Amino acid sequence: MPELAETYACVPSTERGRGILISGDPKSNKVLYTNGRSVIILDLNNPLNVSVYGEHAYPATVARFSPNGEWVASADVSGTVRIWGAYNDHVLKKEFKVLSGRIDDLQWSPDGMRIVACGDGKGKSLVRAFMWDSGTNVGEFDGHSRRVLSCAFKPTRPFRIVTCGEDFLVNFYEGPPFKFKQSHRDHANFVNCVRYSPEGSKFISVSSDKKGIIFDGKTAEKIGELSSEDPHKGSIYAASWSPEGKQVLTVSADKTAKVWDISEDGSGKLKKTLTCSGSGGVDDMLVGCLWQNDHLVTVSLGGTISIFSASNLEKSPLQLSGHMKNITSLAVLKSDPKCVLSSSYDGLIVKWVQGLGYSGKLQRKENSQIKCFAAAEEEIVTSGFDNKIWRISLHGDQCGDGDSVDIGSQPKDLSLALLSPELALVTTDSGVVMLRCTKVVSTINLGFAVTASVVAPDGSEAIVGGQDGKLHVFCIVGDTLKEEAVLEKHRGAITVIRYSPDFSMFASGDANREAIVWDRVSREVKLKNMLYHTARINCLAWSPNNSVVATGSLDTCVIIYEVDKPASSRMTIKGAHLGGVYALAFTDEHSVVSSGEDACVRVWKLTPQ
Amino acid sequence: MGVADHSKSTYLELQRKKVFRYVIFKIDEKKKEVVVEKTGGPSENYDDFTASLPENDCRYAVYDFDFVTSENCQKSKIFFIAWSPSVSRIRAKMLYATSKERFIRELEGLHYEIQATDPTEMDLEVIRERAS
Q1: Which of A318, A336, A370 is the last residue of a domain?
Q2: Which residues cross the membrane (chain B) (predicted)?
């Protein structure tokens, strides 16, 4: 049975112009964040140890551990809060529809009995506080007229709740049952985050007007500000207190994080400015932060998580990254089978090393979107949503210069002849284009709607699949294609065709959930009835020893068939990737790497039966 | 559509005396009745049965499934399988679909009925799940 060996997690999904809220559990040193419909629990001590909760029906926005660490409350854009167990199976305890719009922040009361949620809604329901197990309201929260971006619960008794929002207000409520007490309009722009210090004596509000204001925790009187010498030069998106309550970490759109010393009288003095190394573009704007034990965690707009050490602020941070969007292709480098390259449609190529995890991003000179991606020994070939094919040379971790060639229409599929990688076959809507290096050698109009293609490793043969399910086998003669045979067995548009590594067989998958293995020479069906998926087959991979074929589908499953055994003796990995599996590759005989819509890459180990 | 006597008696032999593991029935269009196409001995297993079904044509089949329940009792259930692959001719599918009711009425003692349009729908796992 296949077992999950490693997960290379996605990073928090970010949005330009808004901060994100990440949270954690100081006891187990775990960090919680959301991406798409999943909530990810990342262990800071071991970033490869990742747990994913995918039960939300809508994109999740924020998640928090309960004070005792047993439960997690997570919220999504539909206004639903789900409370589930933090360990093992993440059993759902309760689900409440709390607000009528998206929930932007969620906080537990320090005794774990109440939860306050705030966000967007219509009219009155912008903030609600309720008992965690019964959902009964514990107060009325009026006072805000626009989206409430953050809320905080005073960690010590007497309980107070503070909320802040897009109407520039910071509101203070006393209770329970919570009632409006005071409002402050000291900020001149959206107030992005409000946080209480751990002993409850003060709280800080940070805003897009680049200021941070400190208030008294019990009376909500303004007692000070973050000093204006060397302030942030951009909107401050989030703030987090140190565990002793003496320092605050703030992150801002000016791409820096600052640590401030907060004195007893409430004024803040800058202690240190932390910058992350980066290309300096928009992606380096910092949008989220968390101070947990000794770690200062900051998240950038591009999804890079930087972990600084609080006790040693000079040390350069550990940087983790990953994909934020659907990973559409995977490639395993022949020269280094432990290394996996994954690319997502937004143009990000990440290199992962088995056993270590994130190993770096491949920076290309031209950051266009990527639809198809193939890797050969020393170069990668990509195609995007424009009409160009890029060939970029790869030296270790760096991308060299790339050359592009315009092929006239949008490429739908791309395949490299592995043994002679200058030959590339690109399919377009009505035909194929053959490329040698970056020269278009021929454009052949085939007359039928082409959906998938593959070229043989030695460049002698090509197979093109059409919308009608027919496979056309062509012999490559010089620069032209000569049709040799048409194979009809599929009942749906062909989605993927792959040759086996030893070139003796090829396998094809279609949109009608069926996969077939053919013998290449005789063009006879070798293994059929591989119909066990319940949705279209997106990707297919052969194991290096030609004995195993893996298929991945939109139905989130990966099914592994052994070519010598009947199709019914198969191994299924259910729920491999929430949203569908989009790419598969084998790294060695027993390891399959899969990636999908949830922006994660997973490595599975197959134990032979 | 008639049911040949031989079909019914073969079925009764499977049910009462356990002479066969499976019986495959075909509709004989000339005589307009359901006749026995093939029978399998008690030593044959499910894979032999699946192999005997044609890929492109419809059939009716009766299979005697032996299994052990969670309380450790040896049980046997008779399955009726209406095999109608999606690749077969539409005429065949219609013929077999309309005659099925008439035929099933003749077979007493069927425990479960399965309609399969491709091999995955009559996979051994599916049968096992239905039985328990």
Answers
A1: A318
A2: none
**C-alpha torsion A281→A283→A284→A290, nearest 10:** 170
Report the DSSP pairing between strands B33-40 and B2-3.
Answer: parallel
Q: Do residue A313 and residue A325 come from a single domain?
A: no
Q: Which domain holds residue A115?
A: 1-318
The answer to whether A18 touches A291, Cβ cutoff 8 Å, is: no
Residue A138 pLDDT grade (very low, low, confident, very high; cuts 50, 70, 90): confident
Q: Which chain A residues have a beta carbon less than 8 Å from that of B119?
A: 529, 531, 567-568
Contact map slice: A 380-399 vs B, CB within 8 A: none
Average pLDDT over residues A480-501: 86
Place of tokens 């010498």: A229
User: Are A273 and A384 members of one domain?
Assistant: no
Could you tell me if A284 and A374 lie in one domain? no
Place of tokens 């609600």: A128
pLDDT at A367 over 80: no
Topology, domain B2-131: Severin (3.40.20)
The number of folded domains in chain A is 2
Please state the ipTM of this predicted complex.
0.70
Number of helices (H), then strands (E), in chain A:
0, 55
Chain A environment of B120 (Cβ under 8 Å): 529, 531-532
pLDDT, one tens digit per residue, over B48-100 is 888 888 888 889 888 888 888 878 888 888 888 899 988 888 888 888 888 88
Residues of B with CB under 8 A from a CB of A: 47, 86-87, 118-120, 123-124
On the question of pLDDT at A278 being above 80, the answer is no
CATH number of the domain enclosing A3: 2.130.10.10
Query: In this structure, is residue A376 part of a structural domain?
Result: yes
Q: In chain A, which residue's Cα lies nearest the Cα of B125?
A: A568
Residues in chain B closer than 8 A to A529 (CB atoms): 118-120
* Among A residues 478-507, those touching chain B with beta carbons less than 8 Å apart: 491
What is the value of pTM for the model shown? 0.82
Q: What is the pLDDT of residue A3?
A: 85
List, in order, residues 6 or more apart from B53 with CB less than 8 Å away: B24, B59, B61, B83
Q: Is residue A118 a part of any domain in this protein? A: yes
**Residue whose structure tokens are 């989220």:** A288
A-B contacts at Cβ under 8 angstroms: 14
A509 belongs to a structural domain: no
